[in-house]
Amino acid sequence: MKLKNFLATLLGPLLFANGCGALLPVFAEEPTTALELKATAPVSGDGVFLPQIFASTDPLPAVRLCDAPAFGKNLILSRDAIAVLIESNAPAVGVNFSGADYVKISRRARTLGESDILGLLTATLQNNYVKDKGQLELKLTQPWSALLLPDEPLTLDVSELPSLGVTPNFIVRFTLRTTHETLGTWTANLKANVWREVWVASSQLKRGAAPEKNLFARERRDILNLREPVAELSFDDDSLELSESVPAGVPLLARMLKARTVIHRGQRAEALIEDGALSIRTKVEIMEDGAPGDYVRARNFTNRRELTGKVLNEKTILISL
Hints:
Elements (H helix, E strand, L loop, with lengths): L1 H10 L3 E3 L5 E3 L9 E3 L2 E4 L4 E2 H4 E3 L7 E3 L8 E4 H11 L8 E2 L2 E6 L1 E4 L1 H17 L4 E6 L6 E4 L4 E6 L8 E9 L4 E20 L14 E7 H4 L13 E3 L14 E3 L8 E8 L2 E9 L8 E6 L5 E6 L4 E5 L1
Parallel strand pairs: 3-9, 4-10, 20-24
Antiparallel strand pairs: 1-2, 3-6, 5-7, 8-10, 11-13, 12-16, 14-15, 15-16, 16-17, 18-19, 20-21, 21-22, 22-23, 23-24
């Protein structure tokens, strides 16, 4: 009896005596999570989730209770309606909560200003139209009225663009969407630049000159204003020459290069005449300049007859009968 009294004194409320005098443990009831219903709850288009409408002493599971309202609309849920949603979607949470009598649910919103819309337009037009031609830069030529839109990731789809694509000045029509909805269609008047490093003549270059690296400098230019393709030049390639004179400071365009002339007017060369298995060689006088692959006129030294042949190299043309 003394031992029993000692244990009761030592362990206090953790033990109690049953009807037979035996000591039994007493366990405290685990505290439950305290839920407090919020008066307002901003949500995204993904839906209404449990942690969005309740303030809680403990983390709540991200259980979806219902659809979110359309953007610009409100959804008002009473305590009874919320209890039904919890019983259907998260019964383990329980329906005992304090707080507001109802919650007003709305969509999160943000303002889409000029810099935001230019960022979306630039990214879309760069990826889908300009691609690797250069770095696109856009400016609005008319004021842009800020838009109030969902504070969610936006997708911009181009619905109408000029047939020539991105030009120095153009109009684009586009649609904005979230993951769940289409927000509307807008039109923008734009000024565009596409910046790229190109080869520029360092000094006046003459027609027929070989394009050597020391004759050019690398500069950043707007290729949209050039209106012609720029030259993609490898200075290890000695098969090219300038097809026209290039003034100092002018970018090198694709049309300014051609295959290097290897055979010249007035030059004596050999004509290889082929007719099936028959092959004959004869001397001819070249009557016009030509590069490998070009067709040039030539005159037979023996009978003065004019022939047309394909330039093979600096000494030979091929004539097929």
